[in-house]
Structures are given as structure tokens and as C-alpha cells.
Amino acid sequence: MRGSARRTGGVLVALLAVLTAAGCASIAGVAEPITAGSVLVGDGVEPSFVQGTDDSTTDRIAASTITDVQAYWRQNFPTVFGKAWRDVTGGVYSVDTSKDKAKAPPCTDQASDVEGNAFYCPAKDSVAWDRAALLPVLRDQFGDASVVVVLAHEMGHAVQNRTSPTQDVARADPDRYPTILIETMADCYSGAFVRSVVDGKAPHLRINAQQLDKAISALATFRDPVGTSAGEEGAHGDAFDRVSAFQDGYQQGPKLCAGMTVANRQFTQRTFTDPRDQARGGNLTLPDLVNALTPDASSFFASVAGSNWSQPKLTQTDGAAGCGDQGPVAYCPDTKSISLSTKGTVPLIVSNIGDFAAGTLIVTRYALAALSALGKPVDGPDAGKAAVCLAGAYSSSVLTHKGNQLQLSPGDLDKSVGVLLGYDYASRGTSGKGLPTGFDRVLAFRAGFSGGPKSCGV
After folding, report:
1. Which of 112, 330, 391, 430 makes a 20 to 30 Å CA pair with 166?
2. What is the DSSP letter of 313?
3. Is residue 410 pLDDT above 70, yes or no?
């Protein structure tokens, strides 16, 4: 984040960073929390049809995903596109990139070309993955469901190769079909399939709420480097773009994905315009963030709450933030103040995720102050959800320069995604109860970001 005088394909993907993930309990399609673990129903699908397989659990998850994705498209493809689905004809390949003499899959010269990657090859209509350095890392860091999300994305490219835009069409008309749109559609198709898994409709896979949260965090790590232009060849999108596309497919299904265009899709990924901001990676120190954010947030929420608004005093403490179990930033309704703990969790969040991750937490406490000024409850999960939604509305206002004295740096919305996936603090009301899943927290933030304060019920 930065202050200002006025507010002013590639199909190959690489694992870039790790975002912390947490959460369990209810998401649409999941009645109760289930312990995280294997996504396989029984032993899953025998991977004998996978070329190069070692019959490992990792390849069984991959084989089960390919099998169930194709079953999903056999059922849904005719409804969306008006014709029958064709299973991939060029085969699927498990590549052991740790072996120098491993056989190279289609569209590569050698096995090492696949290292750290999974991809769909449109020329050969095939799918390949690195079972040595990609899928095991995903499973270790983000759980088995992350493998499902990644391979469902690659199969999304197979959908495109059977419809439009195909990879060839995209290359011929990059203004109409930039790479970022192609990748966004594939993320959306992945979300649509994963919803069927969560709803219990996939024959060989099951995903519960905790697993889904971790898998979304994996998707967020496949973001482009901060400062990448949305128009750059090979761009996949920032974490906000990618998670948004996945959630849209999850909630609204594949027909929405098929209808995505540059005209109806907003991309938040952008380049740096300030060399000083770029030099510091788009991050302010915590003291500078607080000094810049406080008046700006107060001005925004004054416009939300109207004449009843009274700017809450923000106090900083070396100890725990007071006023109930809200986490390291708390709104105190009795004194109409905000308490910020500057030791421990908040500095850690700034260090690990970035400045606007902490800024998002602070803004949600201003949002609770606005809800209180409007005479609305501030003590339960509904209040916390509204606060997260209003934080999204505030972030959108900063991005579009509607009168604020701040600008969002490239990557700031990714920081919001990171803190919402990793912690429930932003969604806690004054009683300390928050939304239990990162999926729902990000969804609430996006509702405000897209729809403004009215979408948050104020």
C-alpha cells in the first residue's frame, strides 16, 4: 500500500510461494466439518492407464481426478456447449523428474521440462504432471485436494480445446483472448468441478471444508509475480483473480465460465507505477500503514454511516488487544475505540503476508464501528461477515481512487486473500465468533469489493 497526495501459454505453471491456510466447518454442500485426510473414495482409481505411473497414492489421486473430471464433463458438456464431450485422446503422463532417463511426455524435449509443473498439451490433447517435485509438494503443503484443483484446471484447458477459445484462437487474437482470460476460465472450470466433488457427486473423490480451504490456498500460490501486467503473455492472474475465478465456477457453474470475456471480467493484476513502491515490494511499515490508513478508512466509513458516524480512536498496545476475543485488532463498542496490538500476530502477518493483510484486519474494525453507528448488531458472525464485506467495499474504493488519500499497491488484494484464508480474525464480531472457513471469508470480501456497501446490507 502507498500514500499519495490524491487517491489516485502458457499452460505451464510454477509453485511460487506458500500462504498459510486454516479453517473447517460449513460450506455449501458440506453439512458438518470432517477431518482432513485423503480425498479418495476407497482406493480411488487404479492408475494403470497413466503412462509412466508408479502406482503411488499420488498417482491414484491424479488418476481419480482425471477420471472424475471427464465423467463430470461427459454429463455437463452437452448442456453448456450443445455437443458431446470427447475424452482426452493423447493420454495422461506421470513424470518422475528426479530421474535423468525418464521418458519425456508430449510437447516437451525432456522429462526435466516438466519439473515443478502440470500442463495440458493442446497439440497432442494430453495431460502431464511432475509426480516427484510438484504433486508431493502440493500434498505436503496443502493436502490432497490441491492436486484435484490443479489437475482440474489443466483439464479446463482441454475443455477450451474442444470449444472456444482454443489455444490456437487465443494466440491468433490475443486482444480478445489474452492469456489471463484463458487461465481464468480454466480456474473457473476447476471450481465448477470441485463443487461437484464437495457435493458428493464425484464417483472416486470427496473434499470437505477444511480440505477445500487448504486447496484454495494452493491455487493462490500459483499467482503471477507481483507487478506482472494482466496483459503480459503467459499471465495467469494474481491470487485475488485466480481465487475469484475458482469461486465463481464453484458457485455458478460451468456456463458462467464459458461466457467469460475481457468485457465482462475485471482483472486486478497490474504493474507498479511508482519506483519507490516497487523497491519496497508494495509494503509500508506497520507504523506508516496505521498512520496512512486511519484517516482514510475513517473518511470512507463516514460516507457509509452518515451523520451518526464518530471516528473511533485507534490506540496501540504492546499487550493483547482488549474488548473480547477479536484477535490482535479489536473494536470496543463501549468506548467507541479500536485497540491494535503491535506485538506478536500483527507484525508476523505483515512479515509473512504483507502490509495490507494487517490493513484488512484494521479496516474490518472500522467497519464494525460503522455498523454500530447505524444501530446494527456488532457481536455475532453476521456482523463479522458484514465487516469483511465492508472491508472489500473499502478496498475497491481505494483501488478506483474514489476520493481516498491512499492507493493499493500491486499485490495488496493478494494480501487480503492471504489473511482471510489463514485467519478468522477479520470475520469476528465483538463476541469473538467468526466465519469458520476461509472460502466464506473471501467470498464475503469479494461481495463488498464487487457490489459496494449496499451488498453488505448497509
Report:
1. 112
2. E
3. yes
- What is the residue type of 308? N
By CB atoms closer than 10 A (0-12, 13-18, 19+), residue 453 is buried
CA–CA distance, 334 with 75 (Å, rounded to integer):
56
DSSP β-bridge partners for residue 3: 406
**Cell (9 digits) for 173:** 487474437
Alpha-carbon gap, residue 60 to 12, rounded angstroms: 22
Residue 201 CA to residue 199 CA, distance in Å, equals 6
CA pair distance 165, 259, nearest whole angstrom: 10
pLDDT tens-digit profile of 233-263?
A: 888 999 999 999 999 999 999 999 999 999 9
Residue 428 contacts residue 375 (beta carbons within 8 Å): no
Q: How far is CA 86 from the centre of its chain?
A: 30
Secondary structure of 166-178 in the HEC alphabet? Answer: CHHHHHHCCCCCC
- The DSSP 8-state label assigned to residue 200 in this structure reads T
Residues 456, 453, 262: CA angle, nearest 5 degrees? 100
3 secondary structure, DSSP code: E
Rounded to a whole number of angstroms, the CA Rg of the chain reads 22
Nearest to 262 by CA among 187, 159, 180, 169: 180
What does the block give as the cell for 117?
Answer: 509443473
Helices (H), 126-178: 135-142, 145-161, 167-172
pLDDT one-digit tens code per residue, 160-185 = 999 977 666 667 777 788 999 999 99
Three-state DSSP class for residue 118? strand
Three-state DSSP class for residue 338: strand
Q: Are 331 and 377 in contact (CB under 8 A)?
A: no
Amino acid at 278: Q
HSE-up of residue 362 (Cα within 13 Å, Cβ side): 31
> Whose CA is closest to 224, among 245, 241, 207?
241
